């Protein structure tokens, strides 16, 4: 209620109740979030308010570059936080320059009550596994804590003939003293897919019917992701009003196989297409750090809540990519594809450093009935690119930008109702003109600024919490002027929207979670005006999620659940010549939590995509779409010892 932004937080209880294995499973509750990767993909990429967020843009405990790539597992996550819209002041620039919002993972900590929980799970069509969650606190005042999470599963997926293996090990240590707090998190996460890969499709003319959900059009493909990370954080109360903090972490990420880019090109109405596969190998080594101070200064009736922070993110990446010869196949009756050869040695292809300094002051008046936030961040972007074949440097970028923020929260009628507004900016690395025929060849542009204005109201009635917001976001892009033969960052797309989000207890024993989003994403300035007024590809005008659960009064501990997800029609390409239909998905489930011989035992079951519908789900990039996942049965049993 005190934040001038639209946000949501999904707890470990929600994760457990919904058997959510990945962050994507969690964010499937949110009407402002949609997905740009298909079933069977090794990555989970998202859109928030119509703008892309890749799995590389997830934050871990507020720090970029340290969350797992691919399907980030939920077993070691206490809370998934979503902040909608650009957030340059709060977090700095994300690794890929995403501006749709921030997805932050808060790792688990040991609670005062000892925990030893074992779980067994099963997914159709034969993927089974187990997980463990152990937490203990010890020492004077239970100041020291340790939390251990592990998970392993393997077996067939809903994609015909595909199998998947997943392994997680995570340890969280923390110290909670009177004036000093510290934590150390470490995890290893592995994910492997065999005999089948994600794919995306472009269309030769009209949009054909999708194949049956779960059709494996790329048998024989495979891929693997490995993440290893360690993060240390600490804070010290210098005085009653001032705290100093610091964090330092490192991540090593490696991948190999048919990870992405594999596609069905120019699918004809009868399903015939020309295919190509990509065999990849690469790595990302990341170091992330932050330090700063936060405190309170009082000037008469005004309380200033100050934050001064510095962030550092260094990322060194290497990749090699081998493409296959093209082949002919059919999405309804696929043949064995031609597989690209194994890539050679990986060499460094990029070296990026993001540094920033931020200062923010929240001025609180009249017993917090008025809270005004003023802030600014300076972001520096240093990026070098190197040839994958020769190792020679091919690009050198070093630019900076200031991003201001203003936020206001008003509570004129008490703490239950808050009016808020904000102006905030997001940053993306500016382009370098690489067209050798352009009059401004090799010109380097400063980081692009995405600008948002938002107004909203939050209402906490005690049982239900609701947020209604309206926003306007503009994002620049590089376009070419045919008259001057030069490029400029004068392209623009504009998103205007209205969102309503709700969670809580609608009536005794009945809880709801969801909302509705209306987003009008328009290309307002394109090269020579060719597409001015068109709708941005992959941007549904309407989307909505509504989940509900009911505690059956005549069977204590038994809860039935359901969820409806709707996504409106979407244009496939910038030219707006192709369009995919709207779709609706229904999920149902039940859980029963009881005690057996004094031990808590939980039984969970659910069915996603109840009617096993097949549809084109969303747009991956300009001209390409992805398909939905087939019907999925999920079962979990957990026991506390």
UniProtKB/TrEMBL annotation:
Domain TonB-dependent receptor plug residues, every copy: 1-99
Family: Belongs to the TonB-dependent receptor family.
PANTHER family on file: FCUA PROTEIN (PTHR32552:SF82), FERRICHROME IRON RECEPTOR-RELATED (PTHR32552)
Name of the protein in question: TonB-dependent siderophore receptor
Membrane topology recorded in Swiss-Prot or TrEMBL: Multi-pass membrane protein
GO CC terms: cell outer membrane
Domain TonB-dependent receptor-like beta-barrel: 218-610
Keyword entries, A-Z: Cell outer membrane, Ion transport, Iron, Iron transport, Membrane, Receptor, Signal, TonB box, Transmembrane, Transmembrane beta strand, Transport
A Pfam family it matches: Plug
GO BP, sorted A to Z: siderophore transport
Main location: membrane
A molecular function GO annotation: signaling receptor activity
Motif range (TonB C-terminal box): 624-641
Compartments where found: Cell outer membrane
């Amino acid at each position: 209620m005190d934040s001038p932004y639209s946000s949501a937080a999904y707890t470990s209880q929600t994760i457990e109740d919904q058997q959510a294995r990945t962050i994507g499973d969690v964010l499937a509750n949110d009407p402002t979030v949609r997905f740009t990767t298909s079933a069977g993909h090794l990555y989970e990429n998202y859109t928030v308010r119509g703008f892309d967020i890749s799995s590389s843009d997830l934050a871990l405990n507020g720090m970029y570059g340290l969350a797992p790539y691919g399907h980030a597992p939920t077993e070691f996550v206490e809370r998934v936080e979503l902040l909608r819209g650009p957030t340059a002041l709060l977090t700095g620039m994300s690794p890929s320059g995403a501006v749709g919002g921030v997805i932050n993972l808060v790792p688990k900590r040991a609670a005062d009550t000892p925990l030893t929980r074992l779980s067994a799970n099963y997914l159709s069509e034969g993927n089974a596994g187990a997980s463990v969650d152990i937490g203990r606190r010890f020492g004077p005042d239970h100041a020291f804590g340790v939390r251990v999470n592990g998970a392993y599963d393997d077996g067939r997926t809903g994609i015909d003939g595909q199998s998947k293996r997943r392994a997680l090990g995570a340890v969280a240590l923390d110290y909670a003293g009177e004036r000093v707090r510290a934590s150390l998190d470490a995890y290893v996460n592995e994910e492997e897919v065999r005999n089948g890969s994600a794919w995306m499709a472009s269309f030769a003319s009209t949009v054909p019917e999708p194949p049956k959900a779960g059709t494996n059009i790329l048998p024989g493909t495979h891929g693997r992701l490995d993440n290893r990370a360690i993060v240390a954080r600490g804070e010290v109360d210098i005085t009653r009003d001032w705290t100093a903090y610091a964090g330092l972490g490192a991540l090593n990420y490696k991948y190999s196989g048919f990870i992405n880019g594999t596609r069905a090109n120019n699918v004809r109405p009868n399903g015939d297409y020309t295919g190509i596969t990509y065999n990849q190998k690469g790595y990302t080594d990341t170091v992330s750090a932050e330090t700063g101070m936060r405190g309170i200064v009082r000037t008469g009736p005004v309380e200033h809540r100050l934050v001064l922070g510095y962030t550092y993110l260094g990322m060194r990446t290497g990749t090699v990519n081998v493409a296959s010869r093209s082949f002919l196949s059919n999405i309804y009756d696929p043949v064995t594809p031609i597989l690209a050869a194994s890539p050679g040695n990986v060499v460094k292809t990029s070296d990026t450093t993001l540094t920033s300094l931020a200062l923010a002051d929240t001025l609180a008046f009249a017993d917090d009935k008025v809270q005004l936030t003023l802030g600014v961040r300076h972001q520096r972007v240093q990026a070098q690119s190197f040839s994958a074949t020769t190792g020679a440097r091919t690009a050198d970028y070093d630019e900076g930008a200031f991003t201001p923020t203003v936020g206001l929260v008003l509570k004129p009628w008490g703490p239950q109702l808050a009016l808020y507004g904000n102006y905030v900016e997001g940053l993306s690395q500016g382009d370098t003109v690489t067209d050798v025929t352009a009059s401004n060849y090799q010109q380097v542009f400063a980081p692009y600024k995405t600008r948002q204005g938002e107004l909203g109201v939050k209402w906490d009635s005690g049982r239900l919490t609701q947020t209604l917001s309206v926003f306007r976001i503009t994002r620049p892009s590089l376009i070419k002027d045919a008259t001057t033969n030069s490029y400029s960052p004068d392209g623009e797309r504009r998103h205007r929207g209205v969102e309503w989000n709700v969670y809580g207890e609608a009536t005794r024993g009945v809880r709801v979670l969801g909302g509705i989003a209306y987003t009008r994403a328009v290309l307002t300035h394109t090269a020579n005006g060719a597409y001015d007024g068109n709708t941005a590809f992959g941007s549904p005008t309407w989307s909505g999620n509504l989940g509900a659960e009911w505690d059956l009064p005549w069977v204590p501990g038994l809860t039935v659940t359901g969820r409806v997800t709707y996504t409106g029609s979407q244009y496939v390409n910038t030219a707006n010549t192709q369009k995919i239909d709207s779709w609706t998905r229904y999920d149902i489930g039940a859980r029963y939590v009881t005690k057996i011989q004094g031990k808590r035992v939980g039984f969970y079951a659910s069915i996603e995509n109840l009617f096993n519908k097949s549809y084109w789900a969303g747009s991956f990039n300009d001209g390409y779409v992805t398909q939905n996942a087939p019907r999925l049965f999920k079962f979990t049993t957990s026991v506390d010892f």
